[in-house]
Structure formats: structure tokens, C-alpha cells
Amino acid sequence: MNALQGWASPDHADRYRRRVFAERSRLAAEHTDMRGMQQRVLADLLEFNADTEFGRQHGFRNIRTIDDYRKAVPVQDYAAHGPLIERMAAGEENLLSADAPVVYFTSSGTTGAHKKIPVTRRFMQTTFFPFYYAAWAPLIEHYPDVMRRPDAVLNLKHDPLSAPTTTVSGHPHVGASQVDLGTRFGEPLSAELGTAAPWATLPVDVAPDDHVQKMYLRLRLAVQSDLRGLIGINPAMIAAVPHQLNLWWPRIVKEVRDGTVGGAPHGSPDPERAAELERLAEYFGVVRPAHVWPHVRALFCWTTGVASLYLPALREQFGTGVAALPAPVAASEGPVGVPLDRNGSAGSLVLSASVYEFVDAEADLGPDAETLLPHELQEGRDYHVLFSHVGGLYRYAGGDVVRVVDRFRGVPRVEYAGRGTRSDAVGERLREAQVIRALQAASSSTGLPLRNAACRVEQDPRDAAAAVQARPGTAAARYVFAVAPETPWDAAETERFTSLVDSALSAESAGYARARSDAALAPARLRLLDSDSFARDWHTSVGRGIRPTQVKDRLFRQSDAQWQQLTGTDTTTRPAGRGHDEGGQQA
To answer: How many CB atoms lie within 10 A of CB 284?
Structure first.
């Protein structure tokens, strides 16, 4: 029996609930001995992988302490691990881990290239499953309706594949949401909420890369269910739902009335529900998810990073009082933090999953970067996060920055703050987290909510000539923000928001303040977009065959093509500078 079939068992929900709460209790119990647990994780990964090629090269058998480990192993990114991973994918064994990979998770890097993340049975049992189960505890504890029916949850990230891509050695190379963990790893309880809903297995044939059609079909089927929650992980997927409902509304209503799905007969015609849906559109004009599913109680996704700008208004689209519960701070490579309660953004370090190290976010990451341990972190500071685990990633820098929110029972709780790469046109070294906080400050001060925002550095030749005339040797590069407001802004509001963003960037970043003071950067500018611009941009990317889970919010958009796709206008000024991140949040 695979994990999806398990939901048909009468006692499955009870067993699932017990497992989830047991894993949460076990992770919480580890908080009593943070340093001891981290030492045990280190000792286990060193012993287990001592005779691998990597372990022999770095003298794992002679390492006893975290200081020994830091001296023996340099800070590594995917590129440093890449040659051994490619040899593993080709069939060689005992290179990074003594345990052979079962699958390879795919993860989109900042360049868009697909990584191959080796996933072993030992990794899944010791690192992945404990945090994976515990992550659902706040949702099912406080919103038990999501467990009462298979169709109570719309799981937007569930995307099973009948014929997955494979590595040279024949192992599946797929997204984490595309793996049947029950079949691959013997976990019959592992299927997520919503993965046994009527739309989980589509009733009509769809090309594997036709993700827009898949989304339509799932939404078409879901409008006939009484949803209580949505799971997106990637919040951009949930943010797309209001747009999709209105985009496809006439087609959805017609298919409900006719009893068809994707034009093919399915089930019985439902003229009563179709008439109800039509009345909603006539009465409200713009249909919101709250009109279609009035009993939705919770959204489950990342709540920080760029999403923190639009989630407050997005929640209202799904109904008054709807909660946004944070998904774990994690990537395909491994977990960092998991919320054990209803904290709106942060999760406690998963102490038994990995050995964690941190580097101040203002510092450059390199092989010899000086790191801090969990007990040395300061609240309110941003850090690059590194982890090492038994699955074969060592002092691994995945590119994410986390912010320490507080401590719970002595253990740091962290939230995702953004990608670690910088926008650095003239030495401002501006980080994603700093820009997000500047936008938050301007939005809060003006009372102007956003649907989304992006920015890039531009240099207008006319500005450059004026700058040189005023002060020889200066440039006129400036940050241009593309903002989709939740409601229309007038000219005075737009001017004030722009001014506040510019001031807030100077307060967040000494480099930005210095560049503005030296006239190396001109004042920021604002380009107002219509409210659906980011949703259309997201759909365009998905329509090109990119899986929705991997089309994430992108704050820095230095690419002319990306900027033109978002703004819908020709690029009349050229980008300036270097080091701009075209990637998004963790996969």
C-alpha cells in the first residue's frame, strides 16, 4: 500500500495525528541539551561517513570536536559538492555518504540550474522525517477540520509523476513534492493532507510540463468541495489562486454545470452549484476565494521574505480571521527550523537533524569564513546558515539568510530573511532582507498595502549627464521599484512611499547610505503596476513549463527580459552594476 492509499484506512487520521504530535514532542525534548545534541549529531555523521571518499580526504576519523571539524572541512556550496554528486548520480558509491541515494531532489539555484540533491534512507530517517511530521502539528492541532475529509485541503504543491526524470544511474531526479515517500522509504503515514483529494490524481491526461492546465483542473474540481485549508509552501502559489479564479471563472462555472473536467465528462452535472457560483460573480463582481470556500481556516506556506509584504492582504482574500501558518525554514538540501507552535514566522532549530553554523550576513562567505554556533547567535541579527548532516552535505552553504527572532527554551528560533546574494552596483552591498524591511517600513508608515514588489538598478544616460555636470566623477545609477498596490495610490502617496523606501534603505544599509551621500546612487524611483501584474508574470513563467513550486518571488530582477515580462513595457534604461540575484526563496 502506498502512502496515498493509507488515507482510505479508517484509523489513518488518528495514527497520522499521533505520529505528528510524537515527533513534535521529541524535537521539543531535545531543547534541554542543545550543545550535547549538536555534538551527538556531529559524532554520528563522522562515524557513519568516515570511510567515504570525502570522509577519508578530510580525516573524519581524527575529528572529535566542532573546532576540529571546522579546521578540517572548508565551508562548501553546491558547486564544491558538485563533482562528487555527479559521480554519485552516475552510479559510484561511498563518495559523500556511506548510504547510497534512493532519489535525488531537484532544487532550482539562483541561476535557474537544477541541482541534484542526494537523498539517502539514513538522511530521511534521521534528518527529514522528524521535522517533516512535526511541521504539521500546529495546523492539525488548532485547525482539526483539515483532517476530517480527504477533500478538506487544496494541496497546491502535490504533483505526482508517473514517469520521473532519472539520473544516469537510473535514480529519480524529482522535486520533493513529486516523490511517493511511502513507496520509496517505507513511510505509510507520509502522504500530506490533501493528497488523497479527488483532484490529487487528475481524471484527464495532461502533459507533464503543462502546469497551467494542471492548476486549472485542480481548481475546477476544488470549487465543488468545502475547503478548510490550503497548502502551498511556496506562497506565490497561494497568491495566484485569487487571480486564477477570476481568470478561469466562466470556464469553471460552465464545466460545473455540464459535469465536465477539461472538456471530458466527469461525475454528474451540478447546475445548483453552478448557479450558486454565478450568483457570487453577479453579486461581488470580483470573485474571492472566501466567496467560493467560506469555511477556509488556514493557509500553510512560507510567511517571511517577500511574502511578508503581501500576506496580510492575501489572507483577507480567503476570509476574515484566516491564519497563515509558517512552513518550515528548509530547503531541498535539509531543514533549519520548524515551528512547534503558532508563531507567525519562526521555527526552532531542528537540533537532531544537522550540525548548524552561522556567519554574519554582512560578511562574505568563503571556505575559511568564521562561523558561530547556535548558542552564540544574537536575537535580531541576520546570518548565513550552514548545515552538515549524515546524508552527505558538509558545512553546506545553501545561500539562504535567516534572522534570529528569539529563543524558546534556550534554542534560537529563526525565520527566513531572504537569499544571501547582494545587489551591488556601486558598493552598496544591499541584501534582500534589507530591501524587504525597507518596503515593510514604507508600507506600514503610509498604510499602503502591497500585492508584491521587485526592484533593479538602472542608469539613465540623461541622469548620468546631469550628475556629472553637478559633480564630476559621480554616476546616476538608482534603484527602481516595481510595485503592485493592493488599492490605487494617488501621486502624493506614491511620492511619500518612494521617499520613505529610500530613507529606510539608508537606515538598513550603511553601504546604501554611503552611496547616496556620495551621489553614487540617485534617489530611488517607483514604477506602479496594476494589481495583477505579478500574478500574470508568475503565470507566464509557469506557462513556459517551470513547475509552480519553483517559480518563487524574486525581489532583485536585473534581467531585461524578466523586468519587461513583469512590467509589460520595453526596457528603456540599462541595468547597472554587478552581483544581482535572479533567484528566489528556498526550494
So the answer is: 11
Compute the 3-state secondary structure of the chain and give helix, strand, coil in percent, each to the nearest 5.
40, 20, 40
Amino acid at 335: P
Q: DSSP readout, 436-484?
A: HHHHHHHHHHHT--EEEEEEEEEE-HHHHHHHHHHSTT---EEEEEEEE
At residue 505, the 3 state secondary structure works out as helix
Give the tens place of pLDDT for each residue, 118-152.
999 999 999 999 999 999 999 999 999 999 999 99
Pick the closest to residue 411 from 358, 350, 332 (CA basis): 350
Tell me the pTM.
0.92
Give the confidence band of 113 by pLDDT, cuts at 50, 70, 90: low
Kind plus residue range of the DSSP H or E element containing 508? helix 491-508
**SS3 assignment, position 295:** coil
pLDDT for residue 375 is more than 50: yes
Q: Does residue 573 carry a pLDDT above 60?
A: no
Round to whole Å and give the CA distance between 287 and 154.
Answer: 18
Q: Is 260 exposed, middle or buried (0-12, 13-18, 19+ CB in 10 A)?
A: middle
Distance from C-alpha of 396 to C-alpha of 420, rounded to nearest angstrom: 13
